[in-house]
Write a structure and sequence with these properties.
The protein is an all-alpha fold and 243 residues long. Helix content is 82%, strand content 0%. Helix 3 runs antiparallel to helix 7.
Length: 243
Amino acid sequence: MKLRLHTLLVLLKKDFHIMFSNKNIIIILLLPVGFCAFYQFMFADVMQHEGMDGFVLRLCEILNLSALPLSGLAMMVAEEKEKHTLRVLMLSDVSALEYVLSKVLVVLFVMEMISLFIFFVTATPMDALLPFLLITTITSISLLLFGSVIGMISKDQMATGTLSTPLMVLFLIPPMFNDMNNVIASIAKFVPTTPMSNIIDAAIQGQNIFTGEFLSGFLVILIWIIMGAVIFMYMYRKRSMDN
């Protein structure tokens, strides 16, 4: 599969423009930032008193990883479909790898900036920074791939909201409440954001995240990445051949 640097650079410039010229995507970008600032400055003392250190960090990071890849990225793809630029790209010899890598890099860069904001605003111990960035980056790749798929199958930007909401609920709710309900807990262990949340919590407590206890979590995330890549490749090829 082709990967040409000059083509990728052109696509990156285009995708940055699409992201920051779409008001709906900008609102999605501000959601985890706003929630983080609100919860941290209004309820930080309560969280600490109740022994819930790291809750705001995990909640806002899961929101960051759920909203932007699944909804924001899907909107970017759907917008190109509405403007008929996606078909032009497919017919102009732009490979699936070049197309998705550009989208993933742009959204991933913005997500990393938001993740850093969340990390520092919540005053998380600096020792946890590298493990935090590692696990959130790996997890985000799977969600980014599924966001691309949602954009592919959506007729327009309005449809992306309908299709992305169930996945956003799946990735957001079970990890935060997996200890409260047996049904939710059984679902949560197969959701990539659940091991991510557990590993973040362990990193904050200074534990080694590369022990056997957490390796199964990395495996769950890897399976979701493979699933997302396979489904995206299939959808891209199908759309490129479908008149």
